[in-house]
Each structure stands twice: as C-alpha cells, then as structure tokens.
Amino acid sequence: MKIIHIFTELSPLTKKTRQAELNKHFILNQNNASNFIIMPWYNNYDSNSNCNLLYTDKDNNFEVFSSVLSISENPSYLIKPLNQFYPFFNHELNIQTCLIHFYNSLLQFIEKHFDKAIIHLSDFLCAPVSYLIKSKNLQEKFPTLLSLENLYNDINFFQEHYAQMPGTNSILMNEITRNGAFTAIKSGLLFADIIVLKSKYYAKEIQSPENNSDYQQFFINRSDDIYGIMNGVQYGTWNPQIDNEIQYKYSTSDLSQKIQNKLYLQNKFQLTESEKIPLLFYGTRLDKLHGIEIIIESLPELAKLPIHLIISGTGDEELIIQLENEIAKYNNIRLIKGFNISLIHEILAASEFIILPSTDEPDGVSFLYALKYGIIPIAHKVGGHRDVIIDIAECIENPNLIERVNGFFFSSYYSNSLIQIIEEATSVYQDRDLISKYQINCMNEDWSWKKAIQQYQVLYHKLWTKI
To answer: Between 363 and 407, whose confidence is greater?
Structure first.
C-alpha cells in the first residue's frame, strides 16, 4: 500500500504555523516505508545539499527534487517552477495561478513515478487536486482522502481556474456549476473519495438543520464518506511524569505534587496560596470564536467565586484591551499576554480546571494536552469537546460511562450558563476523592498520534481495496 501525502505546509521547512506543526507530528508518526511526501518548494526554504534534482520537464515548466527531510525518512519530493520558486501559499493572497501550476506539476510527476497510490490531500489548499484526478479519469489508480482542520479558511476557485487545469471535463464542470463549488474546499467536498474532519461530532453538527454554513449541503450530500479523527498529542513532550519544565513531576498514582505545582504558581502570580482554592485556566487564541466575549461578560461574577483564574494568549487586540481593563478590577484573576511555552507547562501542571467556551470546535488540540496534566474541562457542548469529554449528565442515558466522567458541559451559550457550570465544578472540587477520580480519568485518556494514525490506516485500507 502506497500513500502519497501532499502538504502545502510542513514544519520545519515552512514557517512554524499551527498547521505546519500538526503536519509535522502527523508524518513523524508514519512509520511505513511506503509513505511519500510531495510539497511545493517555496522561496523561503533554505537551499541545502539534501535536495537533488530528479528531473526537469521543460515543456511544462517544472522540476522535481528528491530530498531527505530532517523529520522523516520517508521519500520526499519538492516541486518548483523552472529557475524560480513558489511564493508561500498564503490563503489570503491571490495564489490560484501558483497553486494550479503546482497541481498540474505534481499530478504529472505522480503519473510518471507511481503506478497506483492513495493520495492524502493534507489541507484545504490541496483540495482541488481531487477534481484534477477525476477530470483525467485517474481516480481508480489514485483515490483521494482530503483532511480538513476547519472551515474558517478557504479560497475562491472559479471556472477560469478549473479551465487552467488539463483535461477539463464538461460533465464535472456542470457538476461544479450546479453545486456552486467555487472554492477550494467545496471542490474537495465534491470530488474527494473520503473526507476527514478533526472531530466526529463536528462532522455531524455541520450537517444539522441549525447549521447555516455555506458548506452544509456539501456535507449532507457526502455524509456516507465523512469521518472524524481527532488530532494527536505528543506525549513524549507533554507529560507531567517526565516534564522538565515543571517544578514537581506527578502521575495518576500520586496527585499530591500537582497541588505543590499550584502553590508554586499561586506564589509566582501573587495569588493567595491555598490548596482549597481551585485554579482555573483559560488559555487559547483570545478572539470571538474562542469565547473571549462570554469570558469578559462573566468576569464580574467569576471574581466573586472562591477561585483563581489565569487567562493567557494572543488574539483580538481590542478585545484583549477590554479584557485587561476588566481584570484590573479583581484580585483573583491574572492575564498573561503573549505565548511563553515554558510558562504554559507550569500553568498546565498547576491548574485543576480549563475553561473551553468556543462557539464551535472543529478540531481542538490544546485541551487534549490539558487532559494529560489532569485538568478537568469546563466546556461548551460542541464539536471536538464532545468527542473527548464525558459529563455526569450523559450517564443518565448511558450508565456505562459513569466510571469515565472527566468534565463539565454547558449547552446554552450565555454567560449565566457558563457561570453556573463553573459554580457546579468548584462545588464538586470540595469532594477531593471525586475530583481526583475525574483528574485520573482525564490523564488516562489516550489521544496520542498513534491512536489517530491507526484510524487513518483503516481509511487508507478502505481506499486501497478499491484500487
């Protein structure tokens, strides 16, 4: 079984974006020698001796280099126009012409060097490749799997863009026009053989009548081909048993050192040192999508509770200024602007609850790290939160879940609902045996990349049997 992974971002080759880092960890955990990587060669790559010219296609104005990447032993190939490089494929720029050149070049390369393979399109900028494969009737040799982190970023892909790809198929073009598939993502949703979102519940929510997304009907039409697989976590780095960034290491067998981490952090931020005061953490991108507005609205009431709250992140500057002004009124809340990786380790080791008030959650990774540190989520009941968190209320319908309870949900997206569930969580905190049980349940969850890759392998085999 051969799998070709098409990336437009991959750390450390490209700048260190969230997507590039996720792609890096994904490929690091692919231990199969039959995995191949193909990427565009951008103008910001450092030229290095590990890149060797494989061949040049003067007629189609591209060349291919074989490469050995520092992060993977899998065969890797970089494609570029003759005598120049691609600009970085930023979705905010008018990059369709460059993308189309990359699509055409990579498919010619694949046809020349592979008799058959699964094509894993690893982000939305790769999605139109699925159209190109079908327009050339290559889908039986090269079935496609498209994975999407979210639906927030997309680019236009109009008829004139499709027309620049060889083998333009009038039947497929009619299908594009009929469905209004004039963006990269919509193209992939129409033509990819399998679509993977990063949450099975988000995959269901996007099809629900309450969802008014432009993509809704595409997902409904492809419901049998849609899957949800959460991103993984690097437990070799983020694990309180071995974390050298924290003051006191701890494990499920002894949580007492977690309390020592809390006392240390309380002192560091000039908060009252007390084992009995629960420490809550809200750390994310501070914007509307991730719930900063409901947090700001809730602060006056949260400040009255016997809790400590640490807020950390970057994001919407206007909202952060509003947040900063509000926090200045209270003694039990602290704001850390910016991102300090060492400090995040310390906060995770010290915190007992994490607040997750996102309006929706198409994937979610940060709270998976929090679970490993025994942090109990207080979350809006949406998307990826539902894949991971088990609230006591869910045990009414499914008593078998009672031993796996690990968090608290609020469903109504109002500040009163958030405040109420935080009050409930901090009340439960007084029952140390119960709260320890919840923490251990969090820490015992397996959201490793190994688990995620196993789920992808099932889908790869599903496609491979059709070749």
So the answer is: 407
What confidence score (pLDDT) does residue 93 get?
61
The pLDDT of residue 165 is 85
Q: What is the CATH number of domain 256-446?
A: 3.40.50.2000
The residue-averaged pLDDT of 159-177 equals 86
Dist CA 79 CA 105 (whole Å): 7
Helix (H, G, I), strand (E, B) or coil at 389: coil
What is the bridge-based pairing of β-strands 52-57 and 62-67?
Answer: antiparallel
Q: Who's near 85: CB < 8 A, 6+ residues apart? A: 41, 42, 43, 45
SS3 state at 210: coil
Domain ranges, ordered by start, for the chain: 3-232+450-464, 256-446
- Token pair 């039986």 is found at 140
**Element counts in the chain: helices (H) and strands (E):** 17, 15
Pair of tokens at residue 186: 């919509």
Please give the order of strands across the beta sheet that includes 118-121: 52-57, 62-67, 76-81, 35-40, 3-6, 118-121, 144-148, 194-197, 226-228
Q: Find, among 100, 90, 29, 34, the residue nearest to 61 by Cα.
A: 100
Query: Would you state the pLDDT for residue 120?
Result: 98
256-446: same fold as 3-232+450-464?
yes
The Cα-based distances of 18 to 4, 46, 49 in angstroms read 22, 20, 27
Contact 309, 425 (CB under 8 A): no
Rounded Cα gap, residues 159 and 425, in angstroms: 53
pLDDT tens column, 43-88: 877 555 578 899 899 999 999 998 877 777 788 899 999 988 888 7
Dihedral sign computed on CA atoms, order 440, 442, 448, 454: positive
Whether the bond between 143 and the residue before it is cis, its omega within 30 degrees of 0, is no
Contact call for residues 390 and 201 (beta carbons, < 8 A): no
Give the CATH architecture of domain 3-232+450-464. 3-Layer(aba) Sandwich (3.40)
Q: Which residue has the tokens 């260190």?
A: 16
Angular region, 137: left φ>0, alpha ψ -120 to 50, beta rest: left
Please report where in the chains the tokens 């991971």 appear, as a residue. 388
pLDDT one-digit tens code per residue, 394-412: 888 888 888 999 999 999 9
Average pLDDT on 370-375 reads: 97
Split at pLDDT 50, 70, 90, the class of 95 is confident
CA 327 vs CA 120, 308, 331, 334: distances in Å: 46, 12, 8, 7
Which residues are within 8 A (CB) of 335 and not within 5 positions of it... i.e. 6 or more apart? 311, 312, 323, 324, 327
pTM: 0.92
